[in-house]
Design goal:
- With 607 residues, this protein is α+β, with helices and mostly antiparallel strands.
- It has two domains: 232 residues, no CATH class; 318 residues, Beta-galactosidase, Chain A, domain 5.
- It has 13 helices and 20 strands.
- The strands form three sheets. The protein has a nine-stranded antiparallel beta sheet with strand order 6-7-8-9-20-16-15-11-12, with no helix packed on it. Strands 5, 10, 13, 14, 17, 18 and 19 form a seven-stranded antiparallel beta sheet that branches. A four-stranded antiparallel beta sheet has the order 1-2-3-4, with no helix packed on it.
- Helix 4 packs parallel to helix 12.
- It is found in: Cell inner membrane; Cell membrane.
Length: 607
């Protein structure tokens, strides 16, 4: 095995060692389990079954009523979303995104985030008050309460709406709902006591999801399901793991409860979309996640501290609801300017977050800059620009590596002499070679450093391209209309010249009949190999000869943006290596090595 093979194996082993050491040194913190049946932390009601928050008040078990066509609604109309609020329960249960479509077809439907009960995969937000001492469950608004709108008109960034309900016993409940120009709702709940007795209650917000969402990816690199931030600790639980929560609540749902003392939020995240409950900063609250296996409902709750409203007083509670796309710039503004603690962590940055976060920040900056210059397909060019920056940062290591490789080529004749002199004495050969390296000041392991660093960078960029919304449906040039999807061209129809369609992207034929970008990737790897003569060992020569074409097919089904990066990386590496080797007095014979690779090798035993 020559030094290049050793370096490749070493780089692979070290990359796994980096991941292992990281998790040993920085293990994810474990959250203490909290029993939801403990009266001190009793949960808010399920969306379909409101109940009391203490053991002193019996639970109410009426299922939520499905809204009908006659159920009054308040329209939601902003520059970026459209939807409505049902006055039955005051649920925010219809919301779609004007700027996003489910596919790239011109007539494709816009993306729906929230849906009412009765629709497939119902998904909605519900707010209310959990009754405490001195008040019965029927005296607070629930899932089936019919609210009235104060005034009229639709909800817009300029015009919030207010709902009102009186319980007939001296308590008047109001709920003001506002929305900004993007995707953040602000819900202000208030209770006015015109009666003669005090009442205690806890304001809460609920996100309820009926069944798993359609189109669930179930891919190891992507988290979909529960997401929560609790005093700086991020929790991610997949949908399929929520039925395994530690405790049963009073209604039999599996639940986990976390006490948040300062800042936090909780909700559900999909591939590109997210909904989260966000109590006001500095407000302690109980963060609850549960799964109701009888009704197949996934639910998150944010239950604020119990408040007491005395006669003649009014109490209020404010919280926010985010429901929309995981746009990096928008979420970042909510974190920096809106005070939502660590909201950027709602994007799934993965194990290598220390790489994926800065990689995407640079990619986003380049994309915005190039788009501002009017460059079409700016995200594709941003990927190439990112590649140039990464190669520039790694250039000092690459320079040392290529200088060492050039010197190693110069030492080949001396190494051959040492092999002949040592014969079968492997120990003597290793000793003599180490002395030669020391004398010539050559480090044979330095060649693996660029490879070692490229592995986590490549994986991190793969993660960024796969999970971030900004790459979704991002065009580049010509036939590349979605950098997050594989190259749509195919040799099956000679890249569109023959009159039949490309094979289905999920079929085996799509893996065989690859597109233009994977072919360019294979060629760029093959040319990079030709900077050096083929290994003298026939087995090694065969492995190296096949490697570019194996990678060509392996990466053929990867996202186009990732293949663009790899092609750019190979091209820059080829140029750097060629120039550095020339500067060290070694002239790579690229064309000679290409000719040599096409020469037929004589058969063993030929005369």
């Amino acid at each position: 095995m020559d030094d290049q093979n050793k370096n490749l194996l070493l780089a692979t082993a070290l990359s796994f060692a980096v991941i292992l050491i990281w998790f040993v040194l920085f293990p994810p913190p474990e959250q203490p389990a909290v029993d939801p049946n403990d009266p001190a932390v009793a949960s808010a009601p399920l969306a379909t079954t409101p109940q009391a928050t203490t053991g002193d008040v019996p639970s109410e078990t009426a299922a939520a009523v499905e809204p009908t066509a006659d159920t009054p609604r308040i329209q939601i109309e902003t520059p970026r979303v459209v939807g409505s609020i049902s006055l039955l329960g005051g649920r925010i249960d219809q919301l779609s995104l004007k700027n996003y479509r489910v596919s790239q077809e011109p007539d494709a439907d816009i993306v729906t985030v929230l849906s009412p009960i009765g629709k497939p995969n119902a998904y909605y937000a519900l707010y209310g008050w959990a009754p405490g001492a001195g008040i019965a469950p029927e005296d607070v608004p629930g899932a089936n309460t019919m609210w009235q709108q104060e005034g009229s008109g639709a909800l817009s960034p300029e015009t919030p709406v207010t709902l009102v309900w009186e319980n007939g016993k001296g308590l008047t409940f109001r709920r003001q709902i506002a929305i900004d120009a993007n995707f953040m709702f602000t819900v202000t709940q208030s209770v006015q006591n015109t009666g003669t007795a005090s009442a205690s209650m806890a304001p809460y917000g609920i996100l309820a999801r009926h069944g798993e969402p359609q189109g669930l990816k179930n891919f190891f690199i992507l988290h979909e399901g529960l997401i929560a931030m609790s005093d700086g600790t991020l929790t991610e639980t997949d949908y399929q793991d929520m039925p395994d929560f530690a405790f049963n609540d009073r209604e039999g749902a599996r639940a986990e409860v976390t006490q948040v003392t300062e800042n936090g939020w909780i909700g559900f995240t999909d591939h590109y979309w997210m909904s989260t409950l966000i109590p006001a900063a500095g407000s302690p609250f109980k963060s609850v996640a549960k799964y109701d296996n009888q009704r197949d409902i996934y639910q998150t709750e944010a239950v604020l501290q119990t408040q007491t409203v005395a006669p003649g007083q009014t109490i209020t509670a404010e919280s926010r609801l985010f429901a929309g796309p995981k746009e990096w710039a928008t979420i970042r503004s909510y974190e920096k300017d809106g005070g939502v603690d660590r909201f950027l962590d709602s994007i799934d940055w993965g194990w290598f977050f220390f790489l994926t976060k800065p990689i995407f920040a640079v990619l986003h900056y380049l994309n915005v800059t190039l788009a501002g210059m009017g460059l079409t397909g700016s995200m594709g060019w941003a990927i190439i620009g990112l590649t140039l920056l990464i190669k520039a940062l790694l250039f000092p290591l690459a320079y040392k590596s290529y200088v060492s490789m050039a010197k190693m080529k110069e030492l080949q004749p001396k190494m051959e002499e040492l092999k002949k002199a040592a014969g079968d004495d492997r120990q003597k050969l290793q000793k003599d070679m180490m002395e030669l390296y020391k004398k010539e000041k050559v480090n044979p392991a330095s060649g693996c450093l660029p490879i070692l660093l490229q592995i986590p960078i490549f994986f991190s960029l793969y993660k960024v391209i796969f999970v971030t919304l900004e790459l979704r449906h991002a065009p580049w040039i010509g036939w590349i209309t979605d950098l997050s999807a594989p190259d749509p061209s195919t040799t099956f129809n000679l890249f569109g010249l023959l009159p039949w369609d490309a094979p289905d992207p999920n079929s085996l034929l799509a893996l065989i009949f690859i597109g233009i970008l994977p072919i360019l990737l294979g060629i760029s790897m093959w040319l990079q190999q030709k900077l050096n003569p083929a290994p003298t060992d026939p087995t090694q020569a065969m492995i190296f000869a096949w490697m570019p074409w194996v990678f060509m097919f392996m990466l053929g089904g990867f996202a186009s943006g990732l293949v663009v990066y790899w092609i750019a990386n190979n091209t820059i590496t080829f140029t750097q290596q060629y120039l550095i080797m020339r500067s060290q007095g070694y002239k790579p014979d690229v064309f000679g090595n290409i000719k040599g690779s096409f020469k037929r090798k004589p058969k063993t035993g030929a005369k």
